[in-house]
Amino acid sequence: MKSFLILLALSFFSVANAQVLVIGIDIPGLHQKDGNGDYDKIVNQSLVKSGKATLKVLPPARAELEFSRCNNCCFSPANKNPEFYEFGEAYVQTKPMGIAKIYIWSKKGSKAIEKLDELKGKKVGIRHGMPYGKTFDNFGLRTDPVKTIRSNILKLEKGRIDAFIAYVPDAYNVFEEMGIEPLPHTKNNPMAVHEDSLICKGVSNTFVEEFNNSIK
Question: Which of the four pLDDT bands, split at 50, 70 and 90, describes residue 1?
Answer without folding.
Answer: low
